[in-house]
Write a structure and sequence with these properties.
The chain is about 65% helix and about 5% strand. By secondary structure, the protein is mainly alpha-helical.
Length: about 210
């Protein structure tokens, strides 16, 4: 009886109301997912990073640190480096340089709603680069990957381990010496053989011009 009343009520409801209600529910669902992605998710990540002892910039809705990043770049690039100055970190990456100075050698910043952890410790950086267990995921750019090509730089997990093992022999020290160092030595030796003739020719031309 209850089901019959409910069915009759649905049948008497205009289809436009049903469609509007369905669209409203879908919009609310998408809005909730968007809010979770742009606010609640980043806030949870920030709390988790701080709970692990990391320090960093607070999350700002949607933009993260993009505005501060652009402002730091404009300020740094508006001033030329002094002559013979080799301290280029503050000029090349001023925002990251300032974040490391303020929050420590391992800190996090925000690229939109995504946190970026900066590591300056060489041992920890080597651990990240040689990781084989999938704890450190690479940033994913599917559009760029389709535009160019997939490869070991984009792979994760077992697929990365398999292709890394295939590439390893090409980077053995002896093969690098044979492919890079030996041709370089030969080129320099050939140049040194012709160097006296080049110097004599320059000296002769200079005397001839006088």
């Amino acid at each position: 009886m209850v089901l019959g009343a409910l069915a009759s009520q649905v049948a008497s409801t205009p289809w436009s109301f049903l469609i509007c209600g369905l669209l409203g529910a879908l919009l609310l669902r998408q809005a909730a997912r968007l809010l979770d992605r742009l606010w609640r998710g980043p806030r949870r990540l920030e709390r988790a990073l701080r709970a692990q002892g990391l320090r960093g910039t607070p999350y700002r809705f949607l933009t993260g640190d993009l505005k501060e990043h652009g402002r730091a770049n404009r300020e740094a690039w508006s001033r030329p480096l002094p002559l013979r100055c080799h301290d280029i970190a503050a000029h090349v990456a001023p925002f990251i340089h300032g974040a490391v100075r303020e929050h420590g050698s391992m800190c996090f910043t925000w690229f939109g709603p995504m946190p970026r952890v900066t590591i300056t410790d060489p041992d920890l950086a080597r651990d990240v680069m040689s990781n084989k267990f999938g704890h450190f995921e690479k940033p994913k750019f599917p559009a760029l990957s389709k535009l160019f090509a997939d490869g070991v730089a984009n792979y994760e997990g077992e697929k990365w381990v398999k292709h890394r093992r295939i590439l390893n022999p090409a980077f053995h020290l002896e093969k690098l010496k044979a492919r890079i160092l030996n041709p370089y030595i030969k080129t320099v030796s050939d140049f040194l053989q012709f160097l006296p003739a080049i110097i004599f020719a320059i000296f002769y031309l200079d005397r001839a011009c006088d």
